């Protein structure tokens, strides 16, 4: 059936059914339905169009760039499906650097959990949850959807099923975390959830304990940033970070490396190094000239040796060719030089 012949009620209901296939987890699907529901209300019975879609987006001009980009993404997806895409504008999220998280703040949260006064039976689960977030970098929804069958204790591996972008990935586990999870899951079935929480509950759990520990700025995603930063500090490549964290592209992973890059720190540290004036203390200012002259002289000597071998040794092929007294041409001499040497000479000019 042609979509443009449907009433708005039928049209938007069909789109909501489409979202069931586009989003496998509840939270992003509910957010998509919320945004598209506001658009349906904004239309007030008028058929959708690209111009009306842009007018709808203009209402949120005072929101953050990332919020506006999220609204645009939902609306652009709907309008493309409808057959009237928004082609003349685009709203992209900001490329923010990852959050720097102090490991001491995460230690405070774990200590607060360990010293809880009530529901002490949950201490083991709660500590394993924050350690899993910290040492695997899984998203909160991925932690909530983790089943016992997704843990390979023999291979010390955690498998994320149907993660963001509907992608699976495997994450190696540290020995202590692997043993802790194995002990905790010993009485559970393969289909049981490991932590028994929804994704919003994971967020609320971290927020509550962060406030109790006196570090209210820490949230569930902070653990993911900490994991990525630690990988970069230990020398992991952008590709390794991308595979472990489930990033869509390597550019996102590269930001963690850029955040902790040692060469950036070295460059800033040089600003505080004293720069002696030439001859001020009997020490000449550093110069590349002596090194350049030394390299230049070495190249000249090498070229001269090559030319001598070409002209004088009687066994050289050019000497046999010149036996009749024919003067050597420059072109014939150059033809006999090694290709690498010719390239080096050309670069020197």
Q: Can you characterise this structure?
A:
This protein is mainly alpha-helical and 349 residues long. The chain has three domains: 3-82; 103-263, Intergrase catalytic core (hpI Integrase, Chain A), CATH 1.10.443; 289-348, no CATH class. It has 17 helices and three strands. The chain has a three-stranded antiparallel beta sheet with strand order 1-2-3. Strand 1 and strand 2 form a beta hairpin. The longest helix has 23 residues, at 289-311. Residues 313-338 and 340-349 have low confidence and may be disordered.
Quick structural overview:
The chain has 349 residues and is mainly alpha-helical.
Please give the alpha-carbon distance between the first and last residues. Answer: 71 Å
- CATH fold-level topology of the largest domain: hpI Integrase, Chain A
In what range is the share of β-strand residues? under 5%
Q: What's the CATH class of the largest domain, please?
A: Mainly Alpha
Oligomer: single chain
H and E order: HHHHHHHEEEHHHHHHHHHH
Mean pLDDT: 81
Return Rg in Å. Answer: 33 Å
How many beta-strand runs? 3
pLDDT under 50 segments (min length 5)? 313-338, 340-349
Q: What's the number of helices?
A: 17
Features of this protein?
single chain; 349 residues; mainly alpha; hpI Integrase, Chain A; 3 domains; 17 helices; disordered C terminus
SSE diagram, text form:
Elements: H1 8-22, H2 26-43, H3 50-58, H4 65-82, H5 103-114, H6 123-136, H7 140-144, E1 151-152, E2 157-160, E3 169-172, H8 175-184, H9 199-212, H10 220-233, H11 238-245, H12 250-259, H13 262-269, H14 289-311, H15 317-321, H16 330-335, H17 339-348
Antiparallel strand pairs: 1-2, 2-3
Helix pairs in contact: 1-2, 2-4, 5-6, 5-9, 6-8, 6-10, 10-12, 11-12
């Amino acid at each position: 059936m042609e979509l443009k012949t449907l009433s708005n009620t039928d049209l938007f209901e069909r789109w909501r059914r489409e979202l069931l296939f586009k989003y496998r987890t509840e939270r992003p699907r509910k957010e998509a339905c919320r945004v598209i529901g506001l658009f349906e209300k904004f239309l007030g019975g008028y058929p959708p169009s690209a111009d009306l879609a842009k007018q709808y987006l203009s209402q949120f001009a005072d929101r953050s760039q990332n919020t506006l980009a999220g609204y645009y993404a939902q609306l652009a997806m709907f309008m493309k499906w409808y057959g009237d895409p928004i082609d003349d504008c685009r709203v992209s999220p900001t490329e923010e650097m990852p959050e720097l998280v102090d490991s001491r703040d995460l230690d405070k949260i774990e200590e607060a959990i360990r010293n809880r006064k009530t529901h002490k039976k949950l201490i083991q689960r709660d500590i394993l949850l924050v350690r899993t977030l910290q040492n695997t970098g899984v998203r909160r929804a991925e932690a909530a959807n983790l089943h016992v069958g997704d843990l390979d204790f023999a291979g010390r591996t955690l498998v994320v099923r149907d993660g963001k972008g509907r992608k699976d990935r495997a994450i190696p586990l540290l020995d202590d975390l692997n043993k802790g999870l194995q002990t905790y899951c010993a009485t559970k079935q393969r289909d049981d959830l490991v932590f028994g929480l929804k994704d919003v509950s994971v967020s609320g759990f971290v927020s509550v304990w962060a406030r109790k520990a006196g570090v209210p700025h820490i949230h569930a995603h902070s653990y993911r940033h900490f994991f990525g930063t630690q990988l970069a500090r230990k020398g992991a490549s952008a590709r390794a970070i991308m595979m472990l964290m489930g990033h869509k592209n390597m550019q996102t992973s590269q930001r963690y490396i850029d955040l902790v890059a040692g060469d950036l720190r070295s460059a800033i540290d040089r600003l505080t190094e004293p720069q002696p004036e030439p001859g001020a203390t009997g020490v000449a200012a550093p110069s590349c000239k002596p090194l350049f002259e030394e390299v230049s002289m070495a190249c000249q000597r090498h070229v001269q040796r090559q030319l001598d071998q070409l002209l004088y040794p009687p066994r050289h092929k050019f000497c046999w060719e010149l036996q009749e007294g024919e003067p050597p041409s420059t072109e014939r001499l150059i033809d006999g030089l090694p290709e690498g040497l010719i390239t080096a000479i050309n670069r020197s000019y």
